[in-house]
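re: ur question from yesterday

yeah so i grabbed the chain u mentioned. its 98 aa long if i counted rite. heres the sequnce exactly as i have it in my notes:
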Amino acid sequence: MSMKKILFAVLMLTLTVSFTSCRDKKARNDVKHQVEKVKEDVNNAAEKVSDKVQDGADAVKDAWKDAKQDVKQGAEKAKKEIKEEYNDVKKEVNKKLD
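ran it thru and got these structure tokens back, copy pasting raw so excuse formatting
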């Protein structure tokens, strides 16, 4: 083989390996970029879900406080009405006993 053919073969082999490794590197970079993007998207979605869960928990807490207040007011009203009825009955009994 002549020196030109050997050099040409080495040059072609070098170029082939160079293009192949660049293409592999580009593919690796593309995959790495896609993985990073998916990771960011998952983190963003998790943050949104966390925010929604927190908002829901806050709404439940507020509803619980409102319900507790309503029950307290209802109990106070019932206590007052029972006391008034008791006093009315007591007066009726005292009138009939006199």
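noticed a couple things. The mean pLDDT is 84. also The first helix runs from residue 3 to 97.
anyway ttyl
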